[in-house]
Specification:
Elements (H helix, E strand, L loop, with lengths): L4 E3 L2 E3 L3 E3 L21 E3 L16 E4 L2 E4 L8 H12 L5 E6 L4 H11 L6 E5 L9 H6 L1 H14 L4 E4 L7 H10 L4 E4 L3 E4 L1 E2 L4 E2 L5 E5 L4 H12 L6 E4 L5 H10 L3 E4 L2 H4 L3 H15 L14
Parallel strand pairs: 3-16, 4-7, 7-8, 8-9, 9-10, 10-15, 15-16
Antiparallel strand pairs: 1-2, 5-6, 6-14, 11-14, 12-13
């Protein structure tokens, strides 16, 4: 049975990876999950300098999911390179670094710094909906998407994944813009902008007022967008948004995703990623599918 997939020349042993920001850099989860069993680990966002993130409270549970307004808190690229890459290199899995920035120059600085590091791919986060400067603008204007993709591609040694924001009118316009800019792969969707109000306190549940909604509640939107994008571009897509089990993952694959990322589910079920891999294998056995490629985009 073949579960291997290829993303821009990078071969993954299976299509399952972690979603950025939900798995740290793997250290916290390594006692629950054997990282050797995952296709790839996608790191938390890495910036050129340390970011403190947004004021607290910055997480709230919602029906069928959660809202987060962490604000991409991270220790910066130097700490990441010294501490996290060596940890991940112990495992037989691909390393995908999520890169965040407030300006095009910020992104380029990180991409250049990672050029000679032993990481397999770069995921450029142009869609985080809770960073006040830059985050929302890059991912919501097709000209910006194309321009930043083109700039990053000039400096990147590794294949570039552009992570798209769902907070747009037409996702295919953004997907085509990233492809036109030279993106090797797309990942989608990032969180939907949401809000929760605490009626007893008569106050916003998160200090930022709005945050990114993730979890099962957003899955139908994510599947629809992946399907639309997969039929609009020729580059591979990593699908994500509310995947909690193998059935969820298979929806994305049948819609056209070459690989999938598990995010919010990790918080309440640290074994989720490995369970998804196992579940896909069981599904393939049950339906006599010998190659995962028979399933990718099978539903038209």
């Amino acid at each position: 049975m073949n579960l291997k997939v290829n993303l821009a020349g990078v071969e993954l042993k299976n299509p399952v990876m972690t979603a950025s920001g939900t798995f740290g850099s793997g250290t916290e989860y390594s006692e629950f999950v054997d990282l050797n069993n995952l296709g790839a680990v996608v790191t938390k966002g890495v910036a050129n300098v340390p970011w403190t993130g947004n004021p607290t409270p910055r997480i709230a549970e919602t029906y069928g999911g959660m809202i987060n307004a962490i604000g991409l808190q991270n220790p910066g690229m130097e700490v990441f390179i010294k501490r996290d890459i060596p940890f991940l290199k112990q495992y037989d899995t691909k390393i995908i670094v999520n890169v965040c920035g407030r300006t095009t120059e910020d992104y380029i600085e990180v991409v250049e710094r990672l050029a000679d590091e032993p990481v397999d791919m770069l995921e450029i986060n142009i869609s985080c909906p809770n960073v006040k400067e830059g985050g929302i603008a890059f991912g919501q204007d097709p000209r910006s998407v194309e321009a930043i993709t083109r700039e990053v591609k000039k400096y990147a040694k590794q294949p570039v994944i552009m992570k798209l924001s769902p907070n747009v009118t037409d996702i295919t316009v953004m997907a085509k813009a990233a492809e036109a800019g030279g993106a090797d792969v797309l990942s989608m969707i990032n969180t939907l902008t949401g809000m929760k109000i605490d009626v007893n306190r008569r106050a916003f549940a998160v200090a930022n007022k709005t945050g990114g909604l993730s979890g099962p509640a957003i899955k139908p939107v994510a599947v629809r967008m992946v399907y639309q994008a997969a039929n609009a571009v020729k580059i591979p897509i990593i699908g994500m948004g509310g995947i909690a089990n193998a059935e969820d993952a298979l929806e994305f694959i049948l819609a056209g995703a070459t690989a999938v990322s598990v995010g919010t589910a990790n918080f309440y079920n640290p074994y989720a990623t490995e369970e998804v891999v196992k579940g896909i294998e069981e599904y393939m056995e049950k339906f006599n599918v010998t190659d995962i490629h028979e399933l990718i985009g099978a539903v038209k």
